Amino acid sequence: MPKDLTLGEHLRRQGISRRGFLKFCAATASMMAMPPGMIPVVAAALEKARRPSVVYLSFQECTGCLESLTRSHSPSVEGLIFDAISLDYQHTLQACAGHFAEHIREEIIKQHPGEYLVLVDGSIPLKDGGQYSTIAGMTNLAILEETAAHAAAVISIGTCASFGGIPKAHPNPTGAVPVTDIVKNKPVINVPGCPPIPTVITGVLAHYLTFGTIPELDDFGRPLAFYGDTIHDRCYRRPFYDQGKFAKTFDDEGARKGWCLFELGCKGPTTYNACATTKWNQGTSFPIESGHPCLGCSEPDFWDAGSFYEALSAPAADVSKWAGAAIAAGAVAGAGIGLKSMRKRKEAAQAHDPVTVDDLKT
Amino acid sequence: MAELSEFPIEVHEAASAPASTQNVVPLLHEIRHALTKLLQSDESTTIDLLSIPMTDADLQALEEALGNGEIDTTITALGTSRIRETRYPGVWLIEHYNVADSLMAKFIEVTRLPEILKADPRDIDAGLQRLSEQLSNNEPDETD
Amino acid sequence: MTSVELLHWARGPGLQISVAIFVLGMVFRVAQNYFIGRDKNLAEPRGTQFGPGMQTIVRRSFFHPGMNYRGYFTLIAGYAFHLGFLITLFFFSQHIDLFRGILGFGWPALPASVIELSAVVGIAGLVAVMVHRIFDPVRRFLSDFQDYFTWLVTLLPLATGYMLIHRIGLPFTEMLALHILSFELLLVVAPFTKLSHMVTIFTSRWYNGAIAGYKGVQS
Ligand code: SF4
Ligand code: SF4
């Protein structure tokens, strides 16, 4: 497929009519959570958009993010987004392997400097020279530095690439860090989630494709269009939270009546993600609808934030042990000092010369 | 190891459907407002129904309130799209499905004719070429 | 430090440290009180000490007619604050989650609407006593830094908790972190200020009752 075609031309060549294209634009705008008034703008921009080369790097990850992403690659409008980019390097999906594969990556860097997009999933190990994860003899760090140096932008797919995720969880044996710790002089978009919702991944790609710009981000580098609200803000169980009606176990009366899952450990109130509105599996449902609390998977260090099944208001560490030690220490110290002052008082009493009649005479 | 069927499974009645979000009536007011605007200044309005928190019951209530009008069409391009005019002329319900037949977008358009129904000059041009080609393929015998 | 890290710290190490300081400080105070001892009472005992001591702890928590000499305002505002604060602290279901996490057991919660009321009453009581303190010349004269500081430290958990539930001001993550931190501040400050009365009031009341009991008079 020639790369110099615009997206509009490319789609027309594939026999997609203007109606199909308008439908694609309407669905894309809706997916990007844009006001419908923007549809003509999206259409005009996509018509002229050029298909960017995409290099997809996988580091310390479980391939769950790619699984999620390819699930959205059904023969649908979302799939078209994938036609609309040119995914040139992804070592799980590409046909060639070894030196051939690496050669492709080098060629892209050489031929399209400043134009290609880098997608990363997985965190980067830094400990012991980064030797815990290497590809074709190169450390993840070296590959990322080399590839990102000439990229237009980097998109971190998933919590591992965005925040370090599970590899970075305590005690972080490989010294894992997120992409933002390494790529400093390029725009980086974080699309966290364990995994992220496929529609959100494609929505972010669509935004870049449409406008060629980085969407508006929050403090953690997440696109506000998808990560602007917490799960709790949009949760349909919210009225129960407000009334203080909580399920206490997974099969009590409250659980059956669909009450709030806060006390079963729901991290919805502190978790920014689109699950409650966009939902999973082609809009079927999201975890809370199945009666399971939110784990907080799109937040930094979600793996180390205490048990998934402890309420947010409960301690995230063992406090009882500390309190027990404090009781002992307090009792010993109090007794010690108390006894000491008692002794002092007694000594003072003993040292005391009783006053006699003689004393008064003088 | 126990077979799956040996596990005791209790089936309880599913939780009742989430209650209405009370979004239907304000939406109808918005549509009324959009119709006035269409009449007075020929300005169209589009509302993205998937961006508004609504339960299935809400959507059904909305569709019932809008009813069916004179036009009901289907577009076949990248999966089907259903475009219906409601009981209120100028108010259209548009649903886009993908090839796998799942709903991707749902809009209410308040306009005289949804843009997507009109034939586009580029498509007309492509069609014209196809027609001409077909005619010229058929004609050689006669012109010879 | 990001908001997320702050919340993690507050729920983890922050809580461990503040609970440890609170428990250590309070146990120290009580143990010290006990071991300092009292002079031997040479008089013949005319009754027991333990029972009357306990009775006094309970009895003095309730209103009785002789108390009105302090003026009804202090009385009512004081009760309102203490009841509001304690009910909110011990019977809000999410606070019980905290106690269950530390103590290993919990107890039934009061409905959210009751907690809402108790929190508002608690805050109103606190504000009222402060207004009184500032506008009454004698009270103002008698107040020092600690009086204002402990008032603030007591108000903060109530105020941030109210704001958290009603989503006033900051997003949930930040507000929850502040709410927990403000409570931890209260824990840390309590043993070293007059707030230690939350524990020592029971020791002194017990002694009062016990002394009366020893003498065989009603406390
Ligand atoms: S289930 Fe979770 S997200 Fe939903 S209202 Fe309860 S705490 Fe909030
Ligand atoms: S509900 Fe929470 S844990 Fe589950 S996918 Fe969404 S953000 Fe992640």
What order do the helices and strands come in, and which of them pair?
The complex is a heterotrimer of chains A (362), B (144) and C (219).
Chain A: H1 7-13, H2 18-31, H3 39-48, E1 53-58, H4 64-71, H5 77-84, E2 86-90, H6 98-111, E3 117-121, E4 124-125, E5 134-135, E6 138-139, H7 140-148, E7 153-157, H8 158-163, H9 165-168, E8 176-177, E9 188-191, H10 198-211, H11 224-227, H12 238-243, H13 253-256, H14 275-278, H15 319-351, H16 357-361
Parallel strand pairs in A: 1-2, 1-3, 3-7, 7-9
Antiparallel strand pairs in A: 4-8, 5-6
Helix pairs in contact in A: 2-3, 4-10, 5-10
Chain B: H1 24-41, E1 45-48, H2 56-66, E2 72-76, E3 80-85, E4 91-97, E5 103-110, H3 121-138, H4 140-143
Antiparallel strand pairs in B: 1-5, 2-3, 3-4, 4-5
Helix pairs in contact in B: 1-2
Chain C: H1 3-11, H2 13-36, H3 50-59, H4 72-91, H5 93-103, H6 112-135, H7 137-142, H8 145-165, H9 172-189, H10 197-215
Helix pairs in contact in C: 1-2, 1-9, 2-9, 3-10, 4-5, 4-6, 6-8, 8-9
Bound molecules: iron/sulfur cluster (2 copies).
One iron/sulfur cluster binds at residues 193, 231, 271, 273, 275, 286-287, 294-298 of chain A.
Characteristic key phrases:
heterotrimer, B: 144 residues, alpha+beta, Ribosomal Protein S8, Chain: A, domain 1, five-stranded antiparallel beta sheet, 35% helix, flat, C: 219 residues, mainly alpha, 10 helices, globular, binds iron/sulfur cluster
> What pattern of helices and strands is seen along the backbone of chain B?
HEHEEEEHH
Q: What oligomeric state best describes the polypeptide chains here?
A: heterotrimer
Please estimate the helix content of chain B: 25-40%
Write down how many β-strands of chain B occur, each being a DSSP E stretch of 2 or more residues: 5
- Quickly give the structural class of chain C: mainly alpha
CATH topology of the domain at 24-122 in chain B: Ribosomal Protein S8, Chain: A, domain 1
Q: So how many helices of chain B?
A: 4
- Rounded mean pLDDT score of chain C: 87
Largest interface: A-C, 46 and 50 residues
Q: What's the CATH H-level superfamily name of the domain at 24-122 in chain B?
A: HupH hydrogenase expression protein, C-terminal domain
Secondary-structure element series of chain C? HHHHHHHHHH
Helicity range of chain C: over 70%
Gross morphology of chain C is globular
Roughly how many Å apart are the termini of chain C?
55 Å
What is the CA-based Rg of chain C, rounded? 20 Å
